[in-house]
Amino acid sequence: MVKAIPEGYHTASPYLVLNHAARAIEFYAQAFGAKERRCLTTPDGKVMHAEIKIGDSVIMLSDEFPSHDAMAPDKLGGCAMFVVLYVEDVDARIEQAVRAGATILRPVSDQFFGDRSGTLRDPFGHRWTLTTHIEDVSDVEVNRRFAQMFATQ
């Protein structure tokens, strides 16, 4: 019996479209510890489909293919989504990603909902929020802190 969701995959997987996908795979390995699972290239060397694994999650990616409406962030005027990575030590992993070539968009800080996180832009235009869970916060407390945040502005 074939499983509807293959072994090693989750219900949802992000799919990133970018320019220079082969270089992006190298960057994600340096910045986030990604492991390449699969890479299918066209005869002219473009990545048609690749999969990397970061932690227990698969992220799919390809070079841009305008003929298939697959456009990189720079062609779209920016990126409309970002990937969230839960990591053991957000401060160290943000530093690692910056050394690999990422740009900090939002410095690491403690969040009202119980995470410590920061946001980066990778050299290919995609945004990544790296986060470490530091506090279990009830829904009631999250709502109280959220309301308080706006009450003091």
Number of DSSP strand runs: 8
Number of domains: 1
Largest sheet, in brief, is: 4 strands, mixed
Please tell me what the overall shape is: globular
Uncertain residue segments: none
Number of helices: 4
Strand content: 25-35%
Mind telling me the C-alpha Rg? 18 Å
CATH topology annotation? 2,3-Dihydroxybiphenyl 1,2-Dioxygenase, domain 1
Distance between the termini: 57 Å
Briefly, what is this?
With 153 residues, the protein is α/β, with parallel strands linked by helices. The protein is built from four helices and eight strands; from the N terminus they run E-H-E-E-E-H-E-H-E-E-E-H.
Written overview of the protein:
The structure is a single chain. The protein is α/β, with parallel strands linked by helices. It has a single domain (15-151), classed as Roll (2,3-Dihydroxybiphenyl 1,2-Dioxygenase, domain 1), CATH 3.10.180. 26% of the residues lie in helices and 35% in strands. The chain contains four helices and eight strands. Helix 1 runs antiparallel to helix 3. The radius of gyration is 18 Å and the shape is globular.
Keywords:
153 residues, alpha/beta, 2,3-Dihydroxybiphenyl 1,2-Dioxygenase, domain 1, 4-stranded mixed beta sheet, 4 helices, globular
List the helices and strands and how they pair.
Layout: E1 15-18, H1 21-32, E2 35-41, E3 47-54, E4 57-63, H2 73-76, E5 82-86, H3 90-100, E6 103-110, E7 115-121, E8 127-133, H4 139-151
Parallel strand pairs: 1-4, 5-8
Antiparallel strand pairs: 2-3, 3-4, 6-7, 7-8
